[in-house]
Amino acid sequence: MAFLDIATTIPILPYPTSDQPAENLTPEKQVKGKIKLMLAFGANRTSANYSSGNQLAAVKTANGMAIGKIAQIGLQLPLKKNYFLSTGLTYQKLHTTFAYSEDLGYVDNVAALHRIYRTKHIYHNNFFEFAELNIGAGKKLYFGENWGSQITVLINPSYKLKSTGRTLDENSAVVYIEDFDAGQKWFLNAGIGVDLFFDTRFGGLVLGAGLNQSLSKIKLLNDSDLKMQPRSVQFRMGVTRDF
Questions:
Q1: What is the maximal distance between C-alpha atoms in the chain?
Q2: Of 19, 126, 133, 235, which is most buried by a Cβ count within 10 Å?
Q3: How far apart are CA 63 and CA 231, in angstroms?
C-alpha cells in the first residue's frame, strides 16, 4: 500500500514587539479630521504709503510708523498631507504718525522794511480701523509629535470701520478726519503668516508674525485725492482648541 504524504504549510506572521509598534502614528494621522479654533491678539507696525494727485513733498518724504492693534478669531480645516484651509475674522487698528517740516525761504515785507523767514510744519497722527474676512490655505511642518511651524497665505476682503486723526489734503493743509462715512469703505488685502504652534490634549498655543499688504489704494476723504496703500508687519499670540 502506498502512503500519500500531504504537507501543510502554516505561515508564521511577525509578532509586534515593544520596539515594533503595531501602527506607526505619524503627526498627520493624529491630527486628521480635527478642526482647530484660534483666538489671538497682537500688534502691527504700519507704513501708510500715502499718495495724492499733486505728489505732496510731505507725503513722499515723511512716512512714519507707529504701533497698532490686532484681534483675530479663526478656523483651520485640515486636508491631506498636513495642508489646511483657513478662514476667520480680524479686527485691525493701524496707526501712522510723522512730523514734517519744510523751509519756505525769505519773503520781503516792503512796507515794514524787513524780511520774514517762513517755515511750514505738519504733524500727522492717524488711526485707521477696519475688519477683514480671512480666506486662505497653508501647510504644517512638524518638528516633533505635537509641535512645529505653519505657513498661511491669505486674501482678505476688508471693510473700513473708522478713520480718525489728522492728515493732509492736496493743498498741504491739516484736515481733521472724524467722519465715520468719509472716504472709501471696501478694499482688498493680501497676507502671509508664519506661526510656531504647540498642541496638547487640552488645547494649544500659537506665536507668529506676518506681512499684510493692501492691494487697493484707499481713498481717505470724499472730497480729496489723498489715498493710502498700507503695509503692516504683524505679531500675534493666541490659543487654539481642536474639535
A1: 148
A2: 126
A3: 11
CB 159 within 8 A of CB 185: yes
Q: Which residues of 46-67 are buried (b: 16+ CB within 10 A; e: fewer)?
A: bbbbbebeeebebbeebbbbbe
pTM: 0.72
Cβ neighbours, 10 Å, residue 166: 14
10 Å CB burial of residue 202 (0-12, 13-18, 19+) is exposed
Q: Which domains does the chain have, with CATH numbers?
A: 37-86+96-242 (2.40.160.20)
**Per-residue pLDDT in tens (0 to 9) along the chain, 243 residues:** 444 444 444 444 455 554 555 444 444 444 455 899 999 999 999 888 877 665 455 554 455 567 889 999 999 999 999 999 999 999 999 887 766 666 666 666 555 555 665 666 666 677 889 999 999 999 999 999 899 999 999 999 999 988 877 665 555 555 555 544 567 889 999 999 999 999 988 899 999 999 999 999 888 766 667 778 889 999 999 999 998
Helices (H) and strands (E) in the chain — how many of each?
2, 12
Grid cell of 76 as nine digits = 483651520
